[in-house]
Amino acid sequence: MATLNKIDFPLRGEFITLDTLLKATAMAPSGGAAKALVASGVVEVDGQVELRKTCKLRLGQVVRLTGVRIHIVAGE
After folding, report:
1. Strands 48-49 and 5-11
2. Which of 9, 12, 27, 69 is a plausible cystine mate for 75, CB 3.0–4.6 Å?
3. DSSP 3-state of 35
4. Nearby residues of 12 by Cβ (< 8 Å), 6 or more positions away
5. CB neighbours (10 Å) of residue 51?
6. Domain 5-74, CATH 3.30.450.40 — does that match?
7. pLDDT band at residue 2, thresholds of 50, 70 and 90?
């Protein structure tokens, strides 16, 4: 079984958009690459495939893509 990289992302503010999160966590090198990644159907939010590039993510949500799990946690 493959090891899953786990990232806790500290949220500052009410939400972060999915494409911005992928860029901020270095899962995508640019905003365009993040949008293409989401459009390809490999990104899940809370266990469901998410195709909305600017989906608003809030505290407690979990984003998964190949080999990575990102948990949105409270920031400072």
Report:
1. unpaired
2. 12
3. helix
4. 75, 76
5. 12
6. no
7. low
